[in-house]
Fold:
Amino acid sequence: MTAPIILHKFADTPGDVNLSSFCLKLECWLKLAGLPYRVEEIGDLDAAPKGQAPWITLPDGTVMGDTGLIIPHLERLFGVDPDEWLSPRQRAMGRAVAALCEERIYYAILRFRWMEEAGFSVLKDLYFDDIPEPVRTAVSGQVRDGVRAKLHGHGYDRHRAEEVAALAAADIAALSELLGDSPWLFGDRPGTADCTAWATVANLLSSSFVTPLRAEAARHPNLVAYHRWGMAHWFPQVAQAQAA
Structure:
């Protein structure tokens, strides 16, 4: 490879990892696969090929979006397979875990961050702080309306907050049960599914938001250990800063 892959992602939160589980997932996978990359932080999604983050620019200039498409393409393009040691059943289980995280828990996280006032006030400070008022309120409100429409289509904006919390609690408990006592989902080394699962757990336990989901995840010692273990493995500098 003559040039690194460019990873376009939202800026990391100071003292923490990325608050987008999909940006975090893809960065973990690039580390797992050993592919050189550099980060370009984004302020908006105007250049996003699918209107969402993250996306990548390949050394030949090709631009791709959606982690579900990016990862298999990179595997084929560069002849890498971080899951070659897994059985077909384990690969299937990993795909199911990813669906649990991305189609269930992710939307619960989104709901509490964007639709509840406590979460939204944090997001306004994190993502819109450089926009002067009254434009700041208008822009953040427009983005919030877009997220509300997405959540309504999914169904999680049709439920009360306590109902979403109850659904998420069952999903978080299931993820904890699947992890069990192993440091990673399938033993003593991470696979692609861990990139998704760990990114989800890291966002559940993020210190930036105080939500019922964070409290629920913290009730599972193995998820807390998984978060700590993954932080030390993938982002040791952040882990050291948090421990200081």
